[in-house]
Amino acid sequence: MIHKVAAFYQFAALPDYRELREPLRAFCAGLALKGSVLLAQEGINGTIAGAVEAIDAFAHELAHGEMFGGRLNNLELKFSTAETTPFGRLKVRLKKEIVTLGDADADPTRQVGTYVDASEWNALISAPDTLLLDTRNAFEVAMGTFEGAVDPDIKSFGQFKDFAAEQLDPARHRRIAMFCTGGIRCEKASAHLLARGFAEVYHLKGGILKYLEEVPEAESRWRGECFVFDERVALGHGLRERDKGHGRDE
Length: 250
Known about the structure:
With 250 residues, this protein is an alpha/beta fold. It contains 7 helices and 13 strands. Helix content is 28%, strand content 25%. Mean pLDDT is 91; it is low at 244-250. One of its GO terms (molecular function) is oxidoreductase activity, acting on paired donors, with incorporation or reduction of molecular oxygen.
């Protein structure tokens, strides 16, 4: 059986997120879905897997069903496949933030960087006055990144604001292009930089996964593999699973 995998997020006001937990968990369990979903007042974030029909029903419920009442009508959603189930169980958790940065001024619902489609990304990062910034953790960067990208050398995304304060300057870095796995960390990171006075902040819409899905390998500026937080470990171009003979080091 081929398992369909959905990675999704949206920043949206969910003041009732605590009350949504059990209905969402029950709905996912009824479809035999496995994976992890985070709910917070600022939105939803998760990756789940299951049968093709079950994932399609889940995606429809988020965007169009009564549970969220149309509040997730701008969901960032990406699909891939796995030969075996990439998750052992289902978890629906409540969090303070759907991606933790710890900066109250970084509000993607109020201001966010300029989205750049995968088809336009190569042109942007080829410009000599563009600082290309990888916002992911060091172990993710070590597995793969874009040519010429700056590695902030952080252990967790919460350290990004310290890196920005110490290494980035609005007067010198006039144009910044950033990227992450699926796009969610860049939403917070770009909002943080804009709040600190950076003039031009761009980020890859849909993240590395969308780029690997859409950009032909012959035209790619990506080198290596993209780490994903499930049992597949990493994906390459076309969102193909990595060779199981080259697993993650313990």
